[in-house]
Amino acid sequence: MRRRLDAVALAARLPPSPRTRYAPSPTGYLHLGHVANAVAVWGLARALGGRVLLRLETHDRGRCRPSYERAIIDDLAWLGFEPDEGPVDQANPEPYQRALETLADAGLVYACTCSRRDWTSPDGTARYSGHCRDRHLEEAPGRTLRLRVEPGLEAFTADDGATAFEEASSGSDIILRDRDGQWSYHLAVTVDDLRQQVDLVIRGADLVDATGIQVRLARQLGRQAPAAFVHHGLVRADDGRKLSKSRGDTGVRELRAAGASAADIIGLAARQAGFATGSGPLPARDVAQMFERRAGGPGAGPHVLG
Known about the structure:
By secondary structure, the chain is of the alpha/beta class. It is built from eight helices and twelve strands. Strands 2-3-4 form a three-stranded parallel sheet, with helices on one face.
């Protein structure tokens, strides 16, 4: 089912000139799914008079590569998606360590020795059971650090500009730092959005379930008002799965080498994600037009994210 997002209604409920971010992980080359996210990020930001920060999520030290960082920056420039700030990365661990200490001081952090296979059910779903919650283990090398997540709803501004309530505990007790000492996605993205003053998060619909816990985590770290969240449709492979860098799905570089123009690739991504119904190329400078009120008088409707 497509997610229809009314940008005009959203704009009416957002603070003026929102600050958003485009935050790929340099673990591979950009594919059409990344381009679709860029369409949504730059399109909504420009339609709303906001700013885009380019942030490279480099916490996965085993998979991130400088060559991928350079390729991402080059591909975005070639496509025509110019950030207002950045690129920035997270080379300095101090903000995440301070956040961890804040949570620990509040009694919300505990050490865990469980591996993923200890808490993956036979049907393949992964939901941590809380086995180590009350074992009072000491923090030590090779042990995961988890956040104690209690049941409860968190409120935030959602896709249509209305207030939504998301269950924070749907993902169980999340990891803050893994057994290899790497900061988790949940902690890193929450800390970075807070310290970089991001107040509008635009991302794929596969991350809807992460919203409640990230709003909760931000509040526990001192955020006074949660960011607004917009979740857009995904570009999917022929078998229905979302695109993946690790699988080598259709990339910007391959399409570019085959002779596709930047506008061709953007138009293709916009159509496959359901943002646009036309069949032609779409230059980066025009993506905001899909999210603005159409000209034509009082009866004209807004463009929507499909």
